[in-house]
Write a structure and sequence with these properties.
Radius of gyration: 22 Å
Low-confidence stretches: none
Largest sheet: 6 strands, mixed
Helix content: 25-40%
Mean pLDDT: 93
Length: 499
């Protein structure tokens, strides 16, 4: 009987459990949607207990669907959204959960920049401070909610909450800690001097032990087994930052390979041998001991389509996203088509930004607006990729995953806009697959991630090549897109000002 691996992927809105065989085939999948609590404007919270409940339900339903295969699970790996702040109290009981889309600490980022600490943090952590970065949120709690700050016993990331639920471990892995700006690269670990730059040196004692992503940190407890249906005692690995997990689940693990994830976030990442760049990138992470991930990202991707379909559905319900691709396919290239800034949830850069359609005329249709939305999202990816190139990071093609990869037309638009060949991952659950591959390495199925990817990751046959004429067309519109962004900057600041 063949072995099975369970991958759990916890995003900001959905927790998914996916059962794979060792060839990477999906045997069953189940999810549990979560609710983001917004007690004040700019806040985004999810209690630790909600994460536990989501994992319990998703895993139980996934295993129930799997039938006999559920008894062949030999290991569990989890991926989760990076940054944010999930905390247990000193008795390891749930205290608070802040998601990575929280903006309460935006003012502190400005303070760190004005003090010169942001530049010093980059030198040590290869990470720019931003509002939802874990240590920035710690500083915010210390400054604005000292009573809560004093109760913190353990600082976790989203997937660490899952591991604690499954096996009782209080642990972290290098990929998540690096992405959160907690790793001092001179030491490849935590440091008091780095935490002092954030203004929370005493919080060093609250950070959990670091492990490689594939290291076994515990085993499923009897209580977790009873709640989820998992076999008692099977190994649980430390897990992995979901951004890096999606790259692994797309087969991107070797130096010079690029992964584009078009989901809620625009993720654009390249595997590098050494984290040495001509200019700062948004984020750096760690895959294995000898490889790193240079990352440019913002919340500017395919979630824009989810919003459009939800708010302007034409009566076709759940077929809205599919119909959107069909409509976009019918639009002929024309410089008079509207443009779209995909900044519903975030700008690409520090500072405020807002979404918007530009150049609409009475003759434009729903299809024209959707074309602009698809193109605008892809332009945001291109802007991030331009920054990776400017940092001296070279790559000649990329593998696409996430919601946009499921579209009949969007992957080709990525090739045309970026001007590079695009491959598409076969598995739609690349984050969970990356976590499952980590679990397989942890229990000795494969010696390392490269071997696991070779056996468990499949890509769609063929490569999407850029169309030269379309690339020229989109490049002209990309320049208009960027000019509009510059023109809107002062207005965005004025609109979002408290004054």
């Amino acid at each position: 009987m063949s072995h099975c691996l369970l991958g759990i992927d916890a995003g900001n809105t959905m927790i998914k459990a996916v059962l794979f065989d060792t060839s990477g085939q999906v045997l069953s999948v189940a999810g549990c949607a979560g609710e983001t609590h917004q007690p004040q404007p700019g806040y985004a919270e999810r209690p630790v207990t909600d994460v536990w409940h989501g994992v319990q339900r998703a895993v139980r339903d996934c295993l129930a669907q799997a039938g006999d295969a559920a008894r062949r699970v030999i290991a569990v790996g989890a991926a989760g959204h990076g940054n944010g702040l999930y905390a247990l109290d000193k008795q390891q009981q749930p205290l608070l959960g802040i998601q990575s889309i929280d903006m309460r600490a935006a003012g502190l980022v400005s303070e760190l920049e004005q003090q010169g600490n942001a530049a010093l943090i980059w030198q040590r952590a290869l990470q720019k401070p931003w509002p939802a970065a874990t240590p920035v949120l710690l500083r915010w709690l210390k400054q604005y909610d000292p009573a809560c700050y004093a109760r913190i016993g353990h600082v976790l990331c989203a997937k660490d909450v899952i591991n604690h639920f499954l096996c009782g471990a209080v642990s972290a892995d290098y990929s998540d800690a690096a992405g959160a700006g907690l790793i001092d690269y001179a030491q490849r670990g935590y440091s008091a001097s780095l935490m002092a730059l954030y203004g929370v040196e005493e919080a060093l004692a609250l950070l959990p032990p670091l492990n490689e992503s594939c290291a076994v940190t515990g085993r499923v407890t009897p209580q977790a087994a009873r709640l989820t249906g998992l076999p008692v005692g099977i190994p649980v690995v430390a897990g992995i930052f979901d951004v890096v997990a999606s790259a692994v689940g797309s087969g991107v693990v070797s130096c010079g390979e690029a992964s584009i994830v078009a989901g809620t976030w625009s993720i654009n990442q390249v595997v590098v041998e050494k984290p040495e760049y001509r200019r700062p990138v948004f984020m750096n992470s760690i895959i294995e001991r000898d490889r790193y991930m240079a990352i440019e990202a913002s919340a500017t991707s395919a979630a824009n389509l989810d919003w459009f379909v939800r708010e302007f559905d034409d009566g076709r319900g759940g077929q809205g996203a599919v119909r959107s691709s069909d409509l976009v396919a019918q639009v002929r290239p024309d410089m008079q088509l509207p443009l779209y800034h995909p900044y519903l949830y975030s700008g690409r850069k520090a500072g405020p930004a807002r979404a918007g359609f530009y150049g609409l005329g009475g003759w434009h249709t729903r299809a024209d607006m959707l074309f602009a939305l698809f193109e605008g999202v892809t332009f945001a990816h291109r802007a991030h990729i331009d920054r990776l190139h400017a940092a001296g990071i070279a790559f000649s093609q990329a593998t696409l995953s996430g919601g946009a990869a499921r579209s009949a037309v969007w992957p080709q638009m990525f090739a045309d806009v970026l001007g590079i060949p695009i491959r598409v991952a076969t598995c739609m659950e690349t984050g969970a697959l990356g976590a499952a591959i980590c679990a397989g390495v942890g229990v000795g199925l494969w010696p390392n991630l490269t071997a696991g990817v070779t056996q468990a990751v499949q890509l769609n046959p063929g490569v999407l090549l850029p169309d030269e004429a379309r690339h020229t067309f989109h490049s002209k519109r990309y320049q208009m897109f960027k000019k509009l962004e510059l023109a809107m900057d002062d207005l965005w600041h004025e609109v979002t000002s408290d004054v």
